[in-house]
Write a structure and sequence with these properties.
six-stranded mixed β-sheet, binds zinc ion, SWIM-type domain-containing protein
């Protein structure tokens, strides 16, 4: 498996070595093997992150009207994205008639495949119309544990493996020992090495007001939270930590485009932008948050 190496500006830091799954989908070396690799950050996830950033954040649990602007943007994005996938499916109009016209043997052969495709499309519809809104309701419902927003710290660190002594590593590389974290010290459900990140690695770690510490893992041209909620609920497009990150970026300096999509470093070492990029530039260039007309 080839890796891509990014050299940090700070010469004391190790290079950031990333697997093919961390690249943009349009990159010739991009590869995501369904079932073996962690799931891709779907385009809808990047778009929802953008929607929240552009709307100015989404950290309170609003159950009553008016619907928060971010949720209005997201609703439109969900509808549009589901519609855009229509082209990947054959038309099922009059499917029963259509199959009835074929010779019995052919109908018997084809029908299970059509039904399976119908089910895939129904599952996709359920994801966009039910599961994603429920996911967002859930994390908004727990957002209080992340307030105040500035109490969530983004820490630039070097993650080392179990065989590396952080004190020795810090001494050898002239770094502060507080900025060296053993992989096992993280609360991550999935560790950086399981995402194909070669250790030692300069990564961004979120130290959250809720008490947990999770590394953000470079993947699909952005980063994904390593917490149990995000990593075990494959249908979840966002966890509360990513919500905190999006809300933090929503409050970034407006004139600075990078500051909108790249997570800041509050403390610690100056890790590469690639380990902090929260939205794929490709998606940022092609998605405009909009309300339903
Ligand atoms: Zn999380």
């Amino acid at each position: 498996m080839s890796t891509h190496q990014i050299t940090p500006a700070d010469e004391h830091l190790p290079p950031l070595e990333l697997p093919p799954g961390a690249l943009d989908a349009s990159h010739p070396d991009y590869e995501n093997t369904t079932g073996n690799d962690p799931p891709e950050i779907e385009p809808i996830e990047h778009r929802i992150r953008l929607d929240i950033i552009e709307a100015g954040g989404l950290l309170s649990h609003e159950t009553h009207p008016p619907t928060p602007l971010a949720r209005q943007y997201i609703q439109k994005t969900l509808v549009d994205t589901y519609e855009s996938e229509r082209r990947f499916f054959p038309s099922y109009d009059r499917l029963d008639n259509f199959l009835g016209e074929a010779p019995a043997f052919l109908t018997g052969e084809l029908e299970p495949h059509y039904r399976e495709l119908e089910q895939i499309r129904a599952d996709r519809r359920k994801w966009y119309t039910e599961l994603i809104p429920k996911n967002l309701d859930t994390i908004q419902g727990t957002a209080d544990s992340l307030l105040p927003l500035h109490a969530n710290t983004f820490h630039g660190v070097v993650i080392v493996d179990a065989n590396t002594d952080p004190i020795e590593y810090a001494d050898e590389h002239d770094l502060d020992v507080d900025d060296i974290i053993r992989e096992a010290q993280l609360d991550n459900h999935i560790l950086p090495a399981e995402y194909g990140v070669t250790l030692p690695a300069p990564l961004l770690v979120g130290e959250f007001a809720s008490g947990s510490t999770y590394a953000f893992l470079p993947w699909s041209d952005a980063v994904v939270c390593g917490c149990p909620y995000k990593q075990t609920n494959k249908w979840a497009v966002m966890c509360k930590h990513e919500l905190a990150a999006a809300s933090r970026l929503a409050n970034a300096y407006e004139g600075d485009v990078d500051a909108k999509y790249v997570l800041p470093i509050d403390v610690g070492v100056d890790i590469p932008q690639r380990a902090r990029r929260f939205v794929s530039p490709t998606v940022a260039a092609t998605h405009t948050p909009r309300k339903q007309r």
